[in-house]
UniProtKB/TrEMBL annotation:
Stretches the record annotates as Disordered: 1-20, 143-169
Regions that span the bilayer: 27-44, 81-104
Name of this chain's protein: Altered inheritance of mitochondria protein 11
Keyword annotations of the record: Membrane, Transmembrane, Transmembrane helix
InterPro entries to which the protein is assigned, alphabetical: AIM11 (IPR038814)
Bias (Basic and acidic residues) ranges: 152-169
Cellular component, GO annotation: membrane; mitochondrion
Length: 169
């Protein structure tokens, strides 16, 4: 486990110097994902075609015999289908990650982290009048739906608590 003073391997990677290098680094992941997805689709298509060919009856077989599939064969087919689906989803995820990094001009996780922190620390531009108008609108909607405002619900609980304490005395 690396010590807290030493940066991780991802943090050591500095962003590329030229815009062309940045584009190539970002598009590299996108194209790798696209190639991986093409390969996974080819493998899945080949598997489906093989299963379809296996399902056809032999040329000199009787048409009154029903081919029974045992549970072991069904389990194997289910495991193969799960594997192919996982392969396809993972390849799509790699391609999507590459596309997002290219679209948002990100080269590594450090840049993503920095941009996220900047966006989270940005102050909001909300006026008090808009906030009060929103509260009024939400209270009318809650009244129409037969629900209570959380503030009103807290007031009613407090009043009920006071009534129970005064009735005990």
């Amino acid at each position: 486990m690396p010590s807290p003073a030493s940066p991780s391997r991802q943090d050591d990677a500095s962003p590329p110097n030229s815009p062309f290098q940045r584009q190539m680094r970002q598009l590299g992941l996108l194209f790798a994902g696209a190639g991986f997805m093409a390969a996974s689709i080819a493998v899945a298509r080949r598997s489906v075609l093989r299963r379809q060919l296996e399902s056809f009856p032999k040329f000199y077989s009787g048409n009154r015999v029903v081919h029974k599939v045992d549970s072991g064969e069904r389990s194997l087919m289910a495991v193969q289908a799960l594997g192919l689906a996982t392969l396809n989803v993972m390849s799509f995820g790699i391609m999507l990650t590459g596309g997002i990094s290219w679209a948002f001009d990100l080269c590594n996780l450090r840049e993503l982290r920095e941009r996220t922190q900047v966006a989270l620390r940005r102050p909001g531009n909300f006026s008090q009048e808009d906030e009060k108008e929103m509260e009024k609108m939400m209270s009318t909607i809650l009244d129409k739906l037969g629900m209570q405002n959380p503030e009103e619900l807290a007031k009613e609980k407090e009043e009920a608590r006071k009534e129970t304490t005064t009735s005990r005395d």
